[in-house]
């Protein structure tokens, strides 16, 4: 019981650190938004960021959770710490060699890669984006990419250390790493761009500095656990490549790496499609992505981070495994749902508070808020997918989830293209529905079918032809939301191939109750929001803050009351936690007064 309590406290503590990290993440993006707005120059930066980010994601990020942590766990609990340190040495050697090799290749051939992306007739014909790329953009794209290629090297080593520390249950230090990265990305642009006038190059340099801090902050705690001596020699390299655990990790990592490659193709396709849209569309999309990742990174990542070592430890105890997984899913959903409701109802105030100053104008606000509401479905899907993926990895099954990922990739590419076309004509369904109802009301019985037929014909026409509306960027957001939701359903079905893990009683029923509670909360919040919106001057920051605070408090109280009425299990944990914090606070205050 005491161990379970410590685990819950650890999750809450990690969430707190991740919350602070995301606050700095917003400050980072707010600073960038103030300096550049949703501009073409910033679009080039985000596009250039894709290549180094892709290198890190493909070679490292996927394999950490899919292969390295489960094998670290096996070695640590079955063979001891000495064997774990030896395997860590091998992985560090292999990872360093591979990541540096590919970074050098990309550094050398960046101009050729850029030229292909810009000049490819196939891409031009399919995406029609090259008219917005100039010779100046070409040089800027190449320079930014080359600067940021240092980041994946540093982050790869840092991520391996993170995996090592997770097995030691050292979550605090590993949570600090992204915090320091965001601090560097917040303060860096102020110095490099605002003071030193370095342009978007300054953001790229800040990213490299952040990567250095991401690594350095973990080294002291790592050295307190790591007692072996790192040796780099021809013999150690040879031993690393022939070690059985190394090849086992590679085999487990291959499916996840394939999946990551596909996911990065999605990123590239979305980026290229955004260049066929209005200037600043990609930046608005990126700003919305950051906001929608807020609950995912804080709640989903914290729960998944703590859950994976436990799932890996109990992978042979099926009853315990199922209990840990379902409790993790329900716990994360209970926290996620009210945040989703707040983001949907208060999207405009949130965007204004997060980014709305400097060069970030009203157009950028509307576009970002539009993307944000369409990303809402993705928040639930991505959160659950993170946890279910950990369940597969703990079972050392990396091929089955690849099926869901591949389907998701193909679906996203298909939807991204057709939905951006559709929203380039219409982003508001109300006039379309009004027109349909008008036609139906004026038609006789024989005229109903032609109206319906005409409606679907118009949808096909809008989806296959690009219009001029700025709101086309919403297609990227909605495609991502639908994709992750479908991916979540498929992964649940595939996980049950390994046994009856996702069930009606433990998974589906409690989720539906939470959804009902959230809908009641959201409807009430909408009416309260409209009430205040009519009576306050929303052009003023103070009024926006008042609306956000009042409506959010109402929503959370509604959610809490609904949780009591529907007898949602997770409410008991929160009430106990709040009572504990309250008692600790007043006990410390009383002790201080007695001194």
What does this structure look like?
This protein is mainly α and 595 residues long. The chain has a domain at 41-278. 84% of the residues lie in helices and 0% in strands. The protein contains 23 helices and no strands. Helix 1 runs parallel beside helix 7 and helix 5 (135-148) runs parallel beside helix 8. Residues 1-8 and 124-131 have low confidence and may be disordered.
Tags for this entry?
single chain, about 600 residues, mainly alpha, 23 helices
Tell me the total number of β-strands: 0
**Shape, principal axes of CA atoms:** globular
| CA(first)-CA(last) distance | 34 Å
Q: Mind describing the biggest β-sheet?
A: none
**What's the Cα radius of gyration?**
25 Å
Which ranges are low-confidence, i.e. pLDDT below 50, for 5 or more consecutive residues? Answer: 1-8, 124-131
Q: What is the string of helix and strand elements? A: HHHHHHHHHHHHHHHHHHHHHHH
Helix content: over 70%
Structural class: mainly alpha
Number of helices: 23
Oligomer: single chain
Mean pLDDT: 81
Task: Offer a quick outline of the entry.
The protein has 595 residues and is mainly alpha-helical. The protein has helices at residues 2-36, 40-79, 81-119, 121-127, 135-148, 150-167, 171-195, 201-216, 219-225, 234-242, 244-274, 281-313, 318-345, 347-355, 362-374, 376-394, 400-423, 429-442, 448-463, 474-495, 504-535, 541-565, 570-594. α14 packs across α15.
């Amino acid at each position: 019981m005491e161990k379970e309590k410590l685990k819950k406290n650890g999750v809450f503590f990690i969430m707190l650190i991740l919350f602070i990290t995301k606050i700095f993440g917003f400050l980072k993006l707010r600073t960038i938004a103030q300096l550049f707005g949703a501009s073409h120059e910033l679009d080039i930066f985000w596009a250039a960021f894709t290549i180094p980010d892709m290198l890190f994601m493909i070679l490292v990020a996927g394999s950490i959770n899919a292969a390295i942590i489960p094998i670290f766990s096996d070695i640590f609990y079955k063979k001891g710490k000495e064997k774990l340190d030896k395997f860590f040495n091998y992985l560090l050697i292999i990872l360093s060699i591979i990541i540096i090799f590919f970074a050098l290749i990309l550094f050398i051939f960046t101009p050729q890669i850029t030229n292909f992306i810009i000049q490819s007739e196939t891409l031009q014909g399919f995406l029609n984006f090259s008219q917005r790329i100039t010779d100046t953009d070409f040089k800027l794209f190449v320079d930014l990419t080359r600067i940021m290629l240092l980041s994946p090297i540093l982050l790869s080593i840092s991520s391996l250390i993170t995996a090592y520390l997770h097995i030691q249950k050292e979550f605090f230090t590993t949570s600090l790493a992204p915090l320091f990265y965001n601090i560097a990305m917040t303060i860096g642009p102020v110095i490099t761009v605002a003071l030193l006038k370095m342009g978007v190059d300054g953001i790229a340099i800040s990213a490299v500095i952040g990567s250095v801090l991401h690594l350095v902050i973990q080294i002291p705690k790592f050295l307190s656990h790591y007692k072996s001596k790192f040796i780099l020699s021809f013999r150690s390299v040879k031993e690393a490549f022939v070690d059985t655990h190394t090849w086992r990790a590679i085999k487990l990592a291959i499916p996840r790496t394939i999946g990551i490659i596909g996911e990065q193709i999605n990123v590239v396709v979305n980026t290229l499609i955004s260049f066929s849209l209005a200037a600043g569309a990609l930046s608005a999309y990126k700003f919305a992505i950051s906001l929608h990742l807020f609950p995912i990174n804080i709640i989903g990542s914290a729960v998944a981070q703590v859950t994976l070592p436990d799932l890996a430890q109990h992978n042979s105890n099926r009853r315990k495994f199922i209990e840990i997984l379902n409790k993790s899913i329900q716990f994360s959903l209970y926290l996620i749902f009210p945040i989703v409701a707040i983001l949907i109802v208060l999207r405009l105030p949130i965007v204004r508070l997060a980014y709305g100053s400097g060069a970030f104008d009203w157009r950028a606000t509307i576009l970002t808020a539009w993307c944000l509401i369409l990303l809402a479905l993705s928040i639930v899907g991505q959160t659950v997918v993170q946890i279910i993926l950990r369940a597969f990895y703990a079972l050392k099954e990396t091929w089955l989830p690849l099926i869901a990922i591949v389907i998701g990739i193909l679906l996203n590419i298909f939807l991204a293209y057709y939905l951006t076309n559709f929203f380039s004509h219409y982003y508001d369904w109300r006039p379309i529905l009004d027109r349909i109802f008008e036609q139906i009301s004026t038609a006789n019985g024989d005229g109903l079918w032609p109206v319906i037929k005409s409606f679907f014909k118009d949808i096909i026409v809008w989806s296959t032809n690009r219009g001029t509306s700025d709101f086309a960027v919403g297609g990227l957001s909605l495609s991502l939301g639908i994709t992750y939701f479908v991916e979540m359903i498929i992964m649940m079905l595939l996980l049950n191939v390994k046994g009856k893990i996702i069930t009606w009683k433990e998974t589906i029923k409690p989720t539906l109750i939470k959804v009902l509670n959230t809908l009641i909360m959201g409807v009430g919040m909408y009416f309260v929001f409209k009430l205040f919106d009519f009576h306050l001057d929303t052009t003023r920051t103070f009024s926006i803050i008042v609306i956000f605070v009042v409506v959010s408090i109402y929503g959370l109280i509604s959610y809490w009351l609904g949780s009591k009425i529907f007898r949602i299990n997770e409410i008991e944990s929160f009430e106990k936690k709040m009572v504990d914090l309250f008692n600790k606070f007043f006990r410390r205050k009383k002790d201080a007064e007695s001194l």
